[in-house]
# Entry
Amino acid sequence: MNRNMKLAARILGTYAVIYVAYLYLPVLFLPLFSFNDSIYISFPLRGWTLKWYQIMLANEALHRALMNSLKVGITTALISTILGILGARAVTRYRLPGQKPVVGVIMLPLVVPEIILAMALLILILRLGGSLGLVSIAAGHILVCVPFAMVVLMSRFEGFDRSLEEASHDLGENAWWTFWRVTFPNMLPGIVASLLLTFTISFDEFIMAFFLGSTDPTLPVFMWNQLRFPKLLPGVLALGACILIASVFIVVLAEWFRRRNTSDTQTGDMIIG
Amino acid sequence: MDDAFIEIASVSKSFGNVTAVDNISLSIRKGEFFSLLGPSGCGKTTLLRILGGFEAPSVGTIMIEGQDITHMPAHLRPTNTVFQNYAIFPHLNVEQNVAYGLRQQKLSREEQTEKVSAALAMVQLEGFDKRGADEMSGGQKPRVALARALIKRPKVMLLDEPMGALDKKLRE
# Structure
């Protein structure tokens, strides 16, 4: 029995190590090869260089793609978070007829394959005579991001004690002042977390951006275009390394905000897809 | 009663099929200390919430000093409540909690500090002003809630199960 358990522990341990290695090693190769003085990705490394970063910084098309992604990302974050606030507040505060099916429908984009949504939106937009570009990409991203905003904000609203707002009314403040003095400060960590999360999702989203975009690409689509030319690959690696660091930073920040002051409102950990 | 300060006239409140308050009429004089006693779920809290303006009665009227306040919103009523769970604002410290209701009085900083100190002294919490909401003990919370309500000098104080967390010495 004891030996079996030891064996099981060893197998499980090995499995865990392989799993983590498979998950993170490829990602770590990205920054590693971005410093390699060769256009070929192979060991041994030929020498250290920063030239790929210089090339990346000098690339005008890349700047444009980055700006596009920032515009779409910020718009998506703001709109989906505002919609998320309204939706989460309605769902957690009031009992609405048909509430469960409605929430289900809102959450549906989490499970519907994105390529289906992208194709459907593409057909719809073209049918309606709309044009493709950053606006249509942002529209697609908002559709995907609202459920995420809802999940983050609903957990925050559920932990929010209704009697705090009543206490504020009791002490002489009307609905407007109550919102700004009590509701908003208590919601702020959730709102910031939602903004950061939805921005990150939009920033690295590819399928929607590819289907619903014009010739003016967002950053992920731009990177995909570059990948087809071997010479440009190291530059993409350098860019990828930068995005990796920025994304990790933003997601950690979002989680930190979400968990702050929520020790009394235990909610399940969120899964970032 | 001619000298009634609070006049509750045949007030009922039902939630769906449940009648929480069933045709209550009573008058309370000025300066009177009036207690509602009864088993759990008999409607004490609901009646207090109707007085405080958090629920509208299904039937009946409420008068304070001869003025009909049945449909007056909570933030305009001359009442202040100490809630059952105390509803301490978690993002504010003791001083900010107590001073919350003073915003509209537009006091100078000194006047406000003075009032807050006086209110805290009344509940024997001198020197606790900077303590955070999550650093208060179970016995301090109701006192902060009490000071926060008293500082408004309400005509009517509503206390919902106010003594639950206080030790005997403080109750007196």
User: Anything to note?
Assistant: Helices of chain B lie at 44-52, 94-99, 109-122, 140-150, 168-171. Chain B touches chain A at residues 52-54, 73-76, 79-81, 83-85, 87, 89-91, 100-101, 103-104, 148-149, 152 (CB under 8 Å). The two ends of chain B are 31 Å apart (CA to CA).
